[in-house]
Amino acid sequence: MGMKRHPRRSRHPSWLTALLFIVAICAAPALALAAESGSLPNAVTSMSAADIEGTAPPDDASRIERWNALKEAIFGKREVMEGSAVVQLDAPPRALDAALVPLTLNIVGGKQVKAAYVVIDNNPSPLAAHITFGPKADPSTLKLRVRVNEYTLIHAVAEAQDGKLYGVSKFVKAAGGCSAPAGPDESEALRDLGQMKVRLLGPFTPGKPLQAQLMVRHPNFNGMQMNQITRMYTPARFIKTTEVSYEGANVFRLESDISMSTDPVVTFGFVPRNAGKLHVRVVDSEDKTFEGSFDVPASGGPSASGPAAADAGAVPEPADFWTGPVNSATPRTLTGATVIRAPDLAALLKTDRAVLVDVSNSPPRPDKLAPQAIWMPPPHPVIPGSLWLAGAGAGSLDEAAERFYERRLGEATGHDLDRPVVVYCHERCWLSWNAAKRAIRYGYRRVYWFPDGIEGWQKAGFSTAVAQPELLPGQRESHDTVQVAHE
Amino acid sequence: MHRRDALLGGLSLCCSPALTWAPNADPPPAPLAVERVADGIFFRPGVDEDASAANEGGIANVGFVVGRRAVAVFDPGGSLIDGQRLRAAVRRTTPLPVRYVVLSHGHPDHIFGAQAFAADHAQVVGHQRLPAMLAARGEYYRKRLASAVGADRAGTVVMPTVLVRDRTELDLGGRTLLLTAHPVAHTDNDLTALDSQTGTLLAGDLLFVRRIPSLDGSLRGWLDVLATLKATPARRAVPGHGPTGVDWPGASADLERYLGVLLNETRDAIRKGIPIEEAVDAIGRSERGRWALFDAYHGGNVTHAYKELEWE
């Protein structure tokens, strides 16, 4: 954000510049409307020095001016009434982490509410959230986590069934939540994109309101951090809509943008009449859709006496081998296998005589390559000590390939079905899932699936070695003579 | 420098403007009062405060190691003025050239003095992930620092010219500093240095003594790295904050206890369904009174820990 006011008065107030800026990069619909309609006042003539630093007190004239402009941009001519009898907003007076400010909206006094708005006045994209409640909702408590870029008023506005608007506000001291990213780098942040968790926060009693917490892995890049090496902004990529339904009926729909924290967490209420499924559908600014389904009460979870984790991945386990795209999101589990992460794998390798199997594909030599052309794929890194059985993770194997894979596993394990077998390929790669599933079918009792693959191993800081592939029968020879370079 | 292990970053071109140093006609700033930690190792203890005009951003332990042929600065200071004073302290101690400026990690209280050493044409050495952090946050840090100490005294972000991926050695003539780049812990770009000649570990912010630790990387990762560091063959350590010389590994006990409490109580809160806004007031109360600046930073640490552990 950091549209810092120039010491000399610029023609437009800084927030307007910021608005236009953010409209340009994020095209936040509500604000684009405001900017186009020209309804924002053009001159806020006197701003205090404190306001230049964003630290003006809550009752400063500039803050009132800004809220009035925002109100008009969002609600038009509709009146927003003082609303403390209808809605309450909890926010920390001083944020502990400006990139993660927890907000709680409580609907009080029994008013029927159909929607709620959260406006973070001094964020460049102020309309942080618009929530529409569905028939299955219990709107009494809603929690969000947001970014706050500078000292700001935060407004919560509840819309009653009759269309009347009730607003309250809190002043929050925080700085830098938008421009100071807390998270890891771009590629790492995108790794678990769309992973979801739903947690029930109370016992399931049919017909009674139940609170639940939805967590989504998403970096919510706000497009505001300039990389000073490339002089480019990390492109904005954020969750646009989050829809939750229960047994086909809507619980809520949340429209949001860059003011939501990384890895958004939403706590909401719903009223399950019977046991069933919560369905979550999240769409981001690249129109990528993430979906998840969660049992209520959670299957296999703790009993109704405590919070239950309905922890399921967005991708269900297929009943048989996966024959779809190899490089796509994988399930978080493999029935019969233990999912292992890099640090635990490193520990396992130290203590146990585990057999490591890399089932990455070996890049095939293109058919049309001239016979004399040198075909030399780059050295293939593996976890040291791995067998590289290219092809063992295919969706289907013919009998010869199947026999080859089973034989090689047998030789590597000394035909000991209790030897740990660790299967991996790349991150977001189904080959290891399939190949590990095969190992289970061959009778191996300690199969580990390492879904983070060689990338996860390297990211965790462990060393690699270079391997040559053993091709399963039917796989094309892909490597000519390869000079093995030591990594 | 063992080139095998260090990536000579292709960064020198893009960063050279930051290194351009305008000679100043003013008298050189007074040197920092440095303490001799061990033979040839000198550090200035930082104050347990936030950066301000009064402390000139001098809130971290910053110093240098003198070999027979060259000097390595290990953290160049919390601001340009802090760095200029550190450089004056080097000049008062030895005529040898400053060949390396090591950045222990990307936090502003450790790095903004780097610009003061531009005239030395030293290699600026950092963790391989340091450039990414500086790219993302450097300008933000600079603005905040400028508002605390004044724009003319804050300094600019200086990008590393040498990146450490794993380990590398800096040869100072008659003594070598072994640099180790760590996995994600205090931040994602922590670098430590071991002087085997005196058995001294320059721990950067992987070790906090007296001042509350600040968590900006991974809680579990920090505990893992700390366990590794404790096995380092060193008798003493220089923490990033606290006294300049402490027993090693004995002085890690408080930090380890704090991180352990944070881990256990945050996990417990998540398991019990205590929401984050309540957890910040409930977790780690036994640590209050044991650390300087507890109230200013502990809540942020709990927030960070919660965010990390709720996905377990």
Give the low-confidence spans of chain B: 1-23
Tell me what portion of residues of chain B adopts beta-strand conformation: 15-25%
What overall form of chain B do the CA principal axes indicate?
A: globular
Q: Which two chains touch over the largest interface?
A: A-B, 40 and 37 residues
Tell me the total number of β-strands of chain B: 14
Strand segment count of chain A: 26
Helix content of chain A: 10-25%
Rounded to the nearest angstrom, the radius of gyration of chain B is 19 Å
Give the SSE order of chain B as H and E letters.
EHEEEEHEHEHHEEEEEHEEHHH
- Level of helix content of chain B? 25-40%
Q: Quote the distance from N terminus to C terminus of chain A.
A: 42 Å
Tell me the fraction of residues in β-strands of chain A, as a range. 25-35%
Supply the number of helical segments of chain B.
Answer: 9
Strand count, sense and barrel status of the largest sheet of chain A are: 9 strands, mixed
Oligomer: heterodimer
Indicate the overall shape of chain A: elongated
User: How would you classify the helix and strand content of chain B by structural class?
Assistant: alpha/beta
Largest sheet of chain B: 8 strands, mixed
Low-confidence stretches of chain A: 1-53, 300-313, 477-487
Number of helices of chain A: 9
